[in-house]
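Researcher: I'm preparing a figure for a lab meeting and need a structural model of a single chain. I don't have an experimental structure, so a prediction will have to do for now. The sequence is pasted below. Please return the structure as tokens so I can convert it later.
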Amino acid sequence: MRASVSRRTLLAWAGLLLLGAPAAAAEPPAVGDPAGLIVLMRHAEAPGVGDPPGFRLDDCATQRTLDDNGRAQARRVGERLRALGIRQARVLSSQWCRCLETARLLGLGPVEELPALNSFFGRSEEREARVAAVRRFLAGLPAGGTPVVLVTHQVTITALTGVHPASGEAVLFRADGTADPPVLGRLADTGSR
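Model: Understood. Here is the structure written out token by token.
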């Protein structure tokens, strides 16, 4: 079974391109009521690529982690999400330390671990199962429910949306009870170091 970007997602992105909208606009997209909003976010800046050989999920010292810029970036993104009207959200994260720290620094609520959001970088055999698990999670979110923030990795976001996000960047959706909710736009960190 081959995973692909849905027709609806492709049409939404084509519409943004036809309108001349930049891929990651400096201004947040208009989302209206934050109820039902889904924020699929890449962890904040953590220098390097992947993780060292032999890293362990239960030991942050063995992983690539956020630096001071990444911590500041996560706080800025939290402020931008509050500017969209999200004061409190259901926040779920990959079990990687850089994702958990990003999720906590957003300041939007308690953080729950969701293994479906874990990275499969360097383990492509896990891709299909992880993407399917995230899609099942999305399908279970009700329209008009509490906003949901999902902090994950570039590979997960790209597999789900075709978007290659920068560190701290998010793709915004509106929950509609399906595995492929409509894309509203992207939210990028506009802060400077």
